[in-house]
Amino acid sequence: LLYQPDHILNFTLGYDYKGFSARLSMQYQSDIFSRTNWYPELRSNTDKLFIYDMAISQSLPLEGLVLFGNVKNISKSKESEINEGTGYMAHKQYYGMTAALGLKYIF
Q1: pLDDT by residue (tens digit) across 42-77?
Q2: In the chain, which ranges are E strands?
């Protein structure tokens, strides 16, 4: 099928102890048939994709107050579309890494 990966894997490893919590997650997506054409040399597939994320939180002494931090796409993965005929890249999409640090209050 067009735009459907053959394999998808989501994996999360976590640790919780009292008010501390840490999570490391990985998302894998196999190559995707992304462009069809009558001529095989004009067809294209995306490259495999690995994305790693991390989330950490710590409860603070004030009841309900939590310090948290999240980092998305640690490996700065990118999506690449490869032309089957030439083997050259037809399209590339960068997402970059993002991070958030904050406080939240839970009622």
Answers
A1: 788 888 889 999 999 999 999 889 999 999 999 898
A2: 8-17, 20-29, 33-35, 44-46, 49-59, 65-72, 78-83, 89-94, 98-105
User: Residue 39 corresponds to which tokens in the numbers above?
Assistant: 């001529």
Distance CA 29, CA 55 (A): 21
Question: So what's the pLDDT on residue 53?
Answer: 96
**Cβ-proximal residues to 54 (8 Å cutoff; 6+ apart), any chain:** 22, 23, 24, 25, 70, 71, 74
- How are beta strands 44-46 and 78-83 bridged, if at all? antiparallel
Question: Per-residue confidence at 107, pLDDT binned at 50, 70, 90?
Answer: confident
The pTM for the full model equals 0.79
Cα separation, 85 vs 22, in Å, equals: 45
